[in-house]
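Re-run with default settings, no changes from the original entry. Doing this only to confirm the output is reproducible before filing.
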Amino acid sequence: MSDLRENYQHWHDGPLAKFRQKAPERRERFASTSGYEFPTLAGPWDLGRAAVSGRQAAGERPSLAAEDTGRDARAPEDDWYTAQLGFPGEYPFTRGVQPTMYRGRLWTMRQYAGFSTARATNERYHFLLKSGQTGLSVAFDLPTQMGYDSTDAMALGEVGKVGVAIDTLDDMRTLFGGIPLDKVTTSMTINAPAIILLAMYQLVAEEQGASAAGLGGTIQNDILKEYMARGTYIFPPEPSMMLTVDSFRYCSQVLPQWNMISISGYHIREAGCSAVQEVAFTLADGIQYTQAAVEAGMDVDAFAGRLSFFFNAHNNFLEEVAKYRAARRLWARIMRERFGAKNPKSWMLRFHTQTAGSMLTAQQPLNNTVRVAMQALAAVLGGTQSLHTNSYDEALALPSPASVEIALRTQQIIAHESGVCDTVDPLGGAWFIEDLTDKIEAGAVEYIRKIDELGGMRSAIERGYPQAEIQQQAYEWQRSVESGDRSIVGVNKFVDEPGSADILSASSKAGGQDAHSTGTAARPTGEAEADQRARLQQYIAQRAANPSQYRLGGGAALSGGGSLPPSSASGGADILSAGQPDGGQAARPTAFGDPAPWATACGRLTDMAARGDKSGYCEAIHAALQCGATEGEIVKALEQVWGRYRPGL
């Protein structure tokens, strides 16, 4: 124990003190309502001291018995503590990725929002920011996620339905109108066409005067889990992985503060997997992405520090807390031992959390406020870096402004009233939590070994292994609910009498409009779809009438100050011209007289794919957008060569 106390003192006087100088804590003193001061970090070195001090104050002589000396009855060895728990901000990061965690800065409160049109969603963003939200999170509609323009026949009936429709750079301008993108961080849940939407975001930010190097945010960009659990893929796995790796390269060079991927267990859990499977399959995806980037010639420490993760917050409170801690520790070991990463930032698992949408019930919907609060608390006690809390009425419809506000207030109450943010990792060292953390880590390791035996996650997905595991677990969960072995309040236990539930009152409706409306009610989906289709048709007509507006003007360098890289398969020729102009600037992608510069730019993307180019797609997509191309046109340009993926075909 003396060695452990020395290690603690070394951490306290060294890394912690240094971190505090750089990022002071939110308050000078954190204390309970009874006046007891909370330490930054509690551990075995503190146990028993208060009891000894109390007896000494009463005139008793201190005893040397084990229960009086601060020795844990469990008596963990110093090497066990160092190896399994360590200190916050240090390997293996079990107790958190920063020394002060929420004492220094609270997690980002990032509510996922997007519906109807860019204009309607922009109004919701302004409402959320005024309500105290500290980051934005974009939900895109299904056509945008699948790479279809809103006018495409495949988009019929889906435009603006489950998110916001974004077809053009102009839509992205409208989406973030009046929001300074250099002052907020933005998360975008987009995968197959992620680099297209990221390019739009960067271009809009730069139009506002922001520097690409300073932009903060995240693209989900996790295509493997789409094949496994979610289904919004476009291209086959091989070119999709190539685009992901190209985004790693581009972000590391041009957007160094941007999280280039959010490796997502959330959707895997929503599909029905267990906590152990969520950790295992998510980290196995991370291994596959890291391996692909390394094989493409990237130094692991050049990109690993900007890998981020996305986990579910499910109903079993203690298991969820242990799950986050196990994932953090296991990833640190994978990066240091398997990939030989040297930079401690490369070992850190930083993650966003969203409460479990699959656990929201349409029956007795107000109960969902309690479920969401418990799930959010588990995420905080597990050390999340950002958090979305679901609205209680999401099982019934798109959330109302009132329910969204309650969801955000849930986070704010946890942050400012509960006291759980006043000390780092308050559940650390609890016997049950540490045992469960160990078990979840061990279970995840076994799954990862099996996936390695199958040739890695991409190969395992192609064989259907994780899909089958998820389906079996989902079946067993549903069977336990239907048999009554697993209780869901309001569904199979404590149910309402038929006809007694008042669904309308749950959404605080008054006269057909929400009582806490932002001033504009959400438009019916059909009307919003018609508006978006008309908007895109008008854009295309105006583009055809004024093609000279859509080009890279004056030989200016590409967005972000970068130049187009040489093609990997064309002897060093520039991807948009026969040669790179002097000074390292990108060539104009079109001539002044080109009647359809967007088509020319998209044609060059097709040529790149046909040549088998491995990189440069990010820059070429930037050029296509500046030439007026729509998302659907860019996707179709690549689809001509790669095709659309059909499982089993």
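The first strand starts at residue 108 and ends at 113. The chain has three domains: 2-84, 107-420+433-483, 547-642.
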